[in-house]
Amino acid sequence: MTLGEFELIERYFKPREPLRPDVVLGIGDDAALLRPPVGMDLALTTDTLVAGVHFDDRMDAADIGHRALAVNLSDLAAMGATPAWTLLALTMPEADEAWIQAFADGFMSLATRHCTSLVGGNLARGPRNVTVTVAGLLPMGQALRRSGARPGDDIYVTGTLGDARLALAIMGGLAPRATVAQRSDLYTRYARPEPRLAVGQRLLGIASSAIDISDGLASDLGHLLDGNRIGAVVEAGSLPLSRTMREVVTDQEARDHALFGSDDYELCFTARPALAGAIRALAADCTITRIGTITDGSGINLRYPDGSEAALPVSGYRHF
Amino acid sequence: MTLGEFELIERYFKPREPLRPDVVLGIGDDAALLRPPVGMDLALTTDTLVAGVHFDDRMDAADIGHRALAVNLSDLAAMGATPAWTLLALTMPEADEAWIQAFADGFMSLATRHCTSLVGGNLARGPRNVTVTVAGLLPMGQALRRSGARPGDDIYVTGTLGDARLALAIMGGLAPRATVAQRSDLYTRYARPEPRLAVGQRLLGIASSAIDISDGLASDLGHLLDGNRIGAVVEAGSLPLSRTMREVVTDQEARDHALFGSDDYELCFTARPALAGAIRALAADCTITRIGTITDGSGINLRYPDGSEAALPVSGYRHF
What ipTM describes this predicted complex? Predict the structure, then answer.
């Protein structure tokens, strides 16, 4: 017998840990009831992953669950917000309990790790589609935004860039030299992105602007320039590359993956040069690398180690 | 040339009216920033409509837009909340601008009418799926919940019941006696439900429990009994039926539609008998009808005009 919507939610999506104290009413009524603390702004965002478009439906369901929440938490990280509450709208062709259990494991583990409570959602039949909504909290008026960078600001990124893109290339049959260990390492970077929440929160009051890199560095850094009448110079030699990336592809390919590869979910942010020490002193669970400078020009110029420069085409993932 | 995600949002989903003053930052960053007022709780809910499952994809896109938002606002109405902010995650096979324009018209008109700002969302390619998240505000601790009914409470519903179910039956080729005007009237009830927000808000401090009727009266009234060790008697002769319903089908069919038909999006609520006068005095844009009484029994009994009673099967829409 197939379990119904209510039984599935009860069995797999009711949090095992106590709910956050600011959850007045969780799953099970017409809406969740939450009590935002005084003096805090609310950051609210939603993102969808569609099978066959944003992920291969043969992926491990636990990875899909992790990734669907991670890409949303990454948006909160880019605002410097602390995640609080989550809603999950999941449609799937049939109620395959093994799939749901694995999905819920991946989703709920990440939710628990970041102290966010799943407070509501929707399970329905349909082509596989995972839409997650997350709400986070921020000291009033302190959020990091995409606007705010000024000429002279340093440009930074977290972690390493391009690994997810290389993983996709390998899954597509390219980069045949990669060993099993290398493939596994890169695949994890694609399937299990780590939202940079701790870094984002510590950048409040320090960064002048921030965004998460979902569509590729060139495209997302472009959004920090949009409408501000500013440009950027990125040092080709400073792009942070993983050891696996360096081992598996040429320098030129690595640079292309780092600049144009989507699905990194690292942060890109800017800060006044005087704050470089404060940024170096940020205790973070990932590296932070200065990759360039905001200029009073326009667009993004890539500067090579020999001092020559080339304008970057700004082209990220196109959703249509 | 196909417009990209950003252009589509800019053209069709940027609100034309000024944003609510509690919107610090709307569409265009990694997350929206909202400022909840002090002393208010937040009600948060999400609901998905899938083409071919929850609606016929040949429906007018403006109706789909209205309905996708209305079913979510109906959940807020059932809590007594005042809607504030909305997120829209829309996936569709291709960026058909005529479809998107009509959808946005239906969606944004209803949003404007209820003073809610669209503050974020996601447009992506995929099978048509409309997932809406709404956030509403409530005086702290005052929300209407599904729990709270006690034996002796009166049971009420808003509007008329079963019209949406009859519309679906007609679309499926049944009830052939209906005229064009009757079909149109019923279809509107299905395609353009009116969330009972004003009634819900006025029931704060009056109703002992409330729910919206999405899966059918028998099923949703059942949720008001769940876990409370109470039952209900519903007077068959009191079920509110539209004139069109009475004209088109037999009394027996009308009663079945009213009891078991989904997609009504009316409210069902309970209140102490002493508050009957206060409920009659509620100035509302829809009728409010007393249909029965909460008992110390279990399940739902239907009482016929001759005094006989029959236990109702509790069977609503099954999502799997």
Answer: 0.94
